[in-house]
Amino acid sequence: MIAWQVHRPGPVTGHPLRQVSMSVPEPGPGELLLRVRACAVCRTDLHLAEGDLPPIRPDVVPGHEVVGEVSGLGEGVTGFKAGERVGVAWLRHTDGTCRYCRRGAENLCPDSRYTGWHADGGYAEFCVAPADFVYRLPDRYDDVHVAPLLCAGIIGFRALRRADLPPGGRLGLYGFGASAHLAAQVAIAQGATVHVLTRSKAAQRLALDLGAASAGDAAAAPPEPLDAAILFAPVGDLVPVALSALDRGGTLAIAGIHLTDIPVLRYEDHLFYERTLRSVTANTREDGRDFLTVAQEHPLRVSVTPYPLARADEALVDLAADRVNGAAVLVT
């Protein structure tokens, strides 16, 4: 099969990915073999390729927003059949026994493992995934449009929960790529007023088209104080900007796995009046199931730019250069 590996992490303009020919993997006990039909391109893949995210294993195949067709079942797998369409996301293993798993916070499990980082992912024609961690997919979306829901959608949903947006509240979104454009629609459907702050003019136009109340530059102040904000852009300089935009009692959730250094915060300017700063770490399977139920019940407009699998390296370059409006999706 054809696959892409992160061979030598570095700037995407230096082509850290290489295309290789590999044997089709065999599903182990409890695993499914999937023929990959589509795989969305996540900013986490970019961080992995460029070395911002330290590699766990050499020559890993990235990709963790995988839409696949069941092609084989490992020992002990039940409840799935050949030809069934399923989704694979970032979280692929937890121990189920630690204090975090027992309290429903499996995303914090110290033994957690991740698709496309600890194990080969979806930048390939086939992949394997633990059956307990795959998702049933909403049937209202085709392969290309459902793929971004598996990380961009789920993580945006998790971030929205972490931001503690009150009913009918005012939400600021900093950065407006694959995840933010889905979180915005969920928030608007729930009655929120959404203000988008991003440097991309195309993303600003998309935000307004999707129902945002305003769209301006990332460094600008929103037109009104915010009850909650989510930082999707991996830019630490925006943390004090977003905190300053919060009303009293507001919460800022940082949704990325990587962030550049945060400047010095002034307590009186950025945190006083009970403002809260939170991180977002992966997601639980419950988050994933809940979000996909929302996506089935409330149709989301998923902005995508398809690429053939053979152009995976180009997709990452375009993502790094902010040339992707919405989500890039690799199609096999």
UniProtKB/TrEMBL annotation:
Record-annotated Alcohol dehydrogenase-like C-terminal domain positions: 181-293
Domain Alcohol dehydrogenase-like N-terminal residue range list: 28-139
Cofactor section: Zn(2+)
EC numbers for this chain: 1.1.1.1
Pfam families assigned: ADH_N (PF08240), ADH_zinc_N (PF00107)
Catalytic reaction equation(s): a primary alcohol + NAD(+) = an aldehyde + NADH + H(+); a secondary alcohol + NAD(+) = a ketone + NADH + H(+)
Coiled coil: none
Family: Belongs to the zinc-containing alcohol dehydrogenase family.
UniProt name for this protein: alcohol dehydrogenase
Organism: Dactylosporangium fulvum
